[in-house]
Amino acid sequence: MKLLMPGAAGLRLPPSSNSPKTRPTLKIRQREVNSQHILNSAVTPFTPLMSSDRRHSRDLKEFLMNGSSKSLLRIDSSIRDENSVSRQVANTFEAAWRAENPAGPVHQRELGLTPLPYLTELEHTAMFVPVEYRTPEHVTAQARAAVLADELFEADVVLLTAPLYNLGIPACLKTYLDHVFTDIRLFPGYGITQPLAGRTVVMVSARGGAYGPGMPLEGFDHAEPYLRRQFVDLLGCELEEILIDLTMAAVNPKLAHLTDVADTSLAKAHVRAEQLARGLGDAIAS
Ligand SMILES: Cc1cc2nc3c(=O)[nH]c(=O)nc-3n(C[C@H](O)[C@H](O)[C@H](O)COP(=O)(O)O)c2cc1C
After folding, report:
1. Pick from 172, 166, 269, 272: which is nearest to 217 by CA?
2. Is 32 helix (H, G, I), strand (E, B) or coil?
3. Considering the domain boundaries, does residue 134 fall inside one?
4. CATH, residue 139
5. pLDDT by residue (tens digit) across 9-49?
6. 253 in a domain, yes or no?
7. Is the CB of 112 under 6 A from ligand 1?
8. Most exposed among 77, 178, 237, 243, judged by the fewest C-beta atoms under 10 Å?
9. pTM of the predicted model, to two decimals?
10. Which atom from ligand 1 is nearest to the alpha carbon of 167?
11. Which range marks the domain in which residue 75 is found?
């Protein structure tokens, strides 16, 4: 089987530099690489090209038909349902967002309750297999990645709930990112190209302990910097964070004396969620 890996003949790869001077050129080159590869690669009903040009024409059409409706993609990754604090705060954001954008579509990608399967080698390498060599499994894998990537390209705002699990992100969220990055448009192996620039991610992270400045566990939360690297530095999104501390105070006797601090953190999170939803609605409608 023939695999086309990054750097293979026929693919012009951009350098990894991301200085402001070189960034525009990189974007153009990346688009050439992506278009060329996708056109010569898997042709499935799920692999439409969602270039920024097409996105703009979609926005114009929506604007003419619906006024300033904007789309929201909500991604949930807590393994808990109604007891999830991150979901509850996200509910506050979503309700306020819907009130601000009654005509805007809201899509949901549920990861915590219905997780994607763990990424396999076949799925990881499928995008590099020339279309004539692809098995049905390769085609299915690429179709899945395209659906997930399309959801991100279609969104103006992504509402992401990401609880802290064992000092990192939930496994289901990592698996989701593993799949997403097998779509050639989002594949990070071609350098820092920021394919989702122009979109905002609102991240709601609930943490059992306290990780703020001066706390004994300051710096132990590896979920927040990881997601910042992915969504801001690599994908190019704006990031708004809602961090909730001490959600375990009510059930962990060692944290019982911090219940007031926990309550304040949660109350502030709901207020910020509502303000962000209204502010973001205003900001991107203008
Ligand atoms: C598998 C698992 C691992 C966790 N690991 C941590 C951790 O490392 N640090 C922490 O402060 N809280 C940890 N917690 C507690 C959660 O961060 C906390 O319960 C949070 O509120 C979960 O988000 P949710 O309320 O949206 O479900 C963990 C919880 C689970 C289920």
Report:
1. 166
2. helix
3. yes
4. 3.40.50.360
5. 323 333 333 333 333 333 323 333 333 333 233 333 233 33
6. yes
7. no
8. 178
9. 0.80
10. 8
11. 23-285
